[in-house]
Amino acid sequence: MQEIRKADVVIVGGGASGLAAAVELRMSSPELAVLVIEKKDEPGRKLRATGSGRCNITNTKAAGYDRIMEFFGSIGLATRTYENGLVYPYSESASDVVKLLVGRAVSLGVDFICSEEVTEIRRLSEPDAESSLFEIESVYKDRDGVHKAVSRARFVILACGGKAGPSYGTTGDGYGIAKKLGHSIVSPVPALSGVECEEWNEYAKPDAHMLAGTRTQAELTLYKKGKPVMSESGEVQFTRHGLSGICVFNLTRRMRFDKENGESLRDFCIKLNLFPEFSFGEYIEDIREGIFGCLPIDKLLTTLLKEAVAGYVMELIKLGFECGEIDSGAGKSIYKKPVNELSPAEIKFISDLLHNLEFYPTMIRGWRDAQVTMGGVATSEIDEDTSESKIVRGLYITGELADRDFPCGGFNLSNAWITGLEAADDILKRSK
Ligand SMILES: Cc1cc2nc3c(=O)[nH]c(=O)nc-3n(C[C@H](O)[C@H](O)[C@H](O)COP(=O)(O)OP(=O)(O)OC[C@H]3O[C@@H](n4cnc5c(N)ncnc54)[C@H](O)[C@@H]3O)c2cc1C
Q1: What is the pLDDT of residue 11?
Q2: Pick from 45, 174, 202, 422: most CB atoms within 10 A?
Q3: Topology of domain 4-189+370-430, per CATH?
Q4: Ligand 1 centroid from CA 432, angstroms
């Protein structure tokens, strides 16, 4: 007969929110039996990759910041806070955060079962019964094949994340499990990811591949159907396919569209202002009389921009000139003229390009590249203070599995920590 494991709390997923909840539960109540079932061969795989291996654990502006810092203080994590509010472990090592969390959990007596995938959760008592009992079904593989395992618990924390970064174990399993228990799922889509753009199309002119591998500071504005949606400033990375970098990631959270109403990604445009601090037109006026005034525009641009970006802009200028978008009159073409001979119309044309360099997204890079999931279990069905399901008592839905996503800067991990801790606090209160 199959053995049934028993615990007070089963946590599905040993990621950020699952580990925080496990440690908190045993730290406050050593008599509670806590079992973490993790699909990968070890807990915290994604955590190790966060913040490019540095783990931006939280942000001074994040909801629950004080509680999160108190928790990490209680397990002995030293942190450093940067001027912009970003908080990292003092060692700047994501592995240290995982080691500390898992080490604390193990020393406190949390049981871990790894390389086992939860496939279904069944409620054995009535949905609204005060005292719940869940049956958790999972599968694992060994040399003899695939086997089923069953665990029972009074409380379940469903902490198995979303779909972003599937190589870390997050393949969207929680959606099916939650749906079977009666929850609604807002369609998950990847976010905080790079975007592929039309300008990298093999027929595009100029060919934006010349930009690949270059980084530049800019102010980015996302437009939808010609209207500005949001702006972000920072470092843009040009890749082999399009645009990347934290400011681009943040824009992708606003690139939702309604297919059924005829909308598409084609409705969006990202404009880069390469000189957010000053007007290029006024700059030209200022330098006209000086030594830079004698430089042709291509040489001047290389004094202000990375070579590849200057080259790309020059190609656009040439194109505008050849297509007659800009009339340079008789004589020298626009890109041979010294800056002090440029006409007001030519200066305006160049200035418009530099302040509004346009890129048209064709695709948001998929789950493999995305840092978070937009969509998930409907938040209207989850208690916002405790993360308990409003549909199934005793079930908690934490972290990225719920339809909550945030910009870069430690906010997504903050959401995972705080929802895990609040779920643990509620279970502790109810099991007294
Ligand atoms: C590359 C990368 C870098 C990031 N950097 C940052 C950063 O610096 N700061 C920040 O705030 N956010 C960052 N994020 C986002 C952040 O990591 C997530 O939002 C956060 O980890 C979500 O926590 P979670 O507890 O919901 O799930 P996760 O941490 O994703 O953990 C879920 C766990 O559940 C397990 N699991 C899944 N299905 C099952 C199943 N069926 N049975 C058992 N176990 C299962 C998974 O293997 C996984 O271990 C980053 C994300 C990525 C991909």
Answers
A1: 98
A2: 174
A3: FAD/NAD(P)-binding domain (3.50.50)
A4: 30
